[in-house]
Amino acid sequence: MKSYASDILESLAYLHERGIVHGDIKLENLLVHRVEGQKIPIVKLCDYGLSRILDPKNKNFLMTVPVGSVSYMAPEIKPNVYNNEKIDTWALGVVLYKMSVAYKPTQVSGYKYGAGPIPFRRVDWRKRSNELQDLIKQLLETDVEKRMSAKDALEHPWFSK
Question: Is 116 inside any structural domain?
Fold first, then answer.
């Protein structure tokens, strides 16, 4: 899973450095490419139909109508609100969460989407590392200013263990 997460983050960091927001990160938009002679496949992003270009001055874009896949959308996505590349890192947090336990945080009973701490049910997360949980928490930070960027996420301790 680390290799997959790293591939996705490298792709996002590349896009974000160039002022591009994918806008629809979800499992269905990740392709696994097997390279002959390599043990671990490469993950590639696809479906750029909702991608946006950031305003070079403000480093954001106006989303007049919220678009994306509902259970992967960052909580700040609302009509006529400016957004930035961190909508992609939120969605990646949901992807990693689902890859870890086979359900999204929104499927945990009593969790209100985008409000309060992300639920990590002990029974499902007991075999997952604290570092992975920490990475996911930082990607699913509701405060956009505190949310981890793709570039910073690549430096997270989970990748070095």
Answer: yes
Which residues are annotated as catalytic?
24
Tokens 């499992």 belong to which residue? 27
Q: What distance separates the 2 farthest-apart alpha carbons in the chain?
A: 48
Number of structural domains found in the chain? 1
CB 106 within 8 A of CB 118: no
Beta strands 52-53 and 20-21, pairing class: antiparallel
CATH of the domain at 146: 1.10.510.10
Q: Which helix (H) or strand (E) holds 61?
A: strand 61-63
Dist CA 23 CA 50 (whole Å): 5
Quick check: is 161 in a domain?
A: no
pLDDT tens per residue, range 79-132: 999 999 999 999 999 999 999 999 999 888 888 776 678 899 999 999 999 999
List residues bridging with 21 in a β-sheet: 52
Q: Is residue 157 part of a domain?
A: no
